[in-house]
Known about the structure:
There is one protein chain. The protein is α/β, with parallel strands linked by helices. 35% of the residues lie in helices and 18% in strands. The protein has helices at 27-36, 41-56, 71-80, 153-167, 194-204, 225-235, 248-254, 257-260, 263-271, 296-306, 331-343, 369-386, and strands at residues 5-8, 20-21, 81-82, 87-93, 99-106, 109-117, 123-126, 130-131, 149-150, 181-184, 217-221, 238-242, 282-288, 311-317. The strands form three sheets. It has a ten-stranded mixed sheet with strand order 1-4-5-6-7-10-11-12-13-14, covered by helices on one side. A two-stranded parallel sheet has the order 2-3. It has a two-stranded antiparallel ribbon with strand order 8-9.
Amino acid sequence: MSSTTLIDNAPAPAPVDPRVALVGLGRKEIAAELERIGIEPKKVRMRTKQIFHWIYNYGVTSFDQMTNVGKPLRAKLEAGFTLDRPEIVERLISVDGTRKYLIRMSPGVEVESVFIPDVSKTGALCVSSQVGCTLTCTFCHTGTQRLVRNLTAREIVLQVIIARDDLGEWPTTQENRKLTNIVFMGMGEPLYNTEKVGDALDTICDPEGLGIGRRRITVSTSGVVPEIGPMGERTSAQLAISLHAANDELRSQIMPINKKYPLKELMQACRDYPGLSNSRRITFEYVMLKGINDQPWHAKQLIKLLRGIPAKVNLIPFNPWPGTDYECSDMETIKTFSDMVNAAGYASPIRKTRGQDIFAACGQLKSDSEKKRASVLRKEAKAAAAG
């Protein structure tokens, strides 16, 4: 029996709705839309608060559910706006409970996000910040997909909404929620989209809405040095560095961004990160590549590199994908590496691989949107010919 279960099929494309979609918008944007349809200026703030709370605390899908809004205004809202979500092209669930969503934000723009259960005792949603990626890290599947564009703040927020819908976690205030953490470790480089990531977090972290605390947000970067400090100031998020090598020669080979921002500059940016302390350590991600970066001398280089920085190291077994020449390090090698880093005073847990059977594991995300569209077009052409 297959370990991958398809739990939803893509619906037929819906007609284009001329109404403005409110779900995913921030407070200022909702207020601007209310002003546009003629809401009295002195009432815009109150109405914005009401609508924001219904959308992000209760997850409503109909204006009729907004019971503290009068019927005439609800009718006006219905005429001008929609609470629809974007199309879910595919929803997959792994044997380990990991869920992967392929979401069509607009024609030709599809993005993946992944809900991982049992992270930080509850669960984390891995969100994307771009469609595709420009970094071309040699071990990452996402890096083989061309960059389509940055995601908007709304499109980032919508990934959280989709997961909350799927998990049935409305209202936000309910106890025993599974989705409590957000990690920007999906498709793309968040620090090439800092403004929209920051705007999205203002909505995601709003205590009157989705209510996810900023300490539960982690932004991962491959090392866009000039944006690290500003991102910390703007978001107060936890920082993760996609490191994977502790010397410039090797890191430049597997991560071309290192040629622009070498390790000396990157580590200084880490030391200067706002709020850095023993209680707010930086996480360094290190994928274990057999015969490439997994030897004892590599561990010694890593320990030396981290000296003086409050840090932990996530050791990530390499997750294979079609066409790659890399292999995962042997578990004994990974454990030896972990023991050395631990002995130096840095926690170095070995990350448990999740969602590998549905290509949802770290480094495996790549939307097959172009291939899917081509397949659909071929089917439509055959159907037309047969008719």
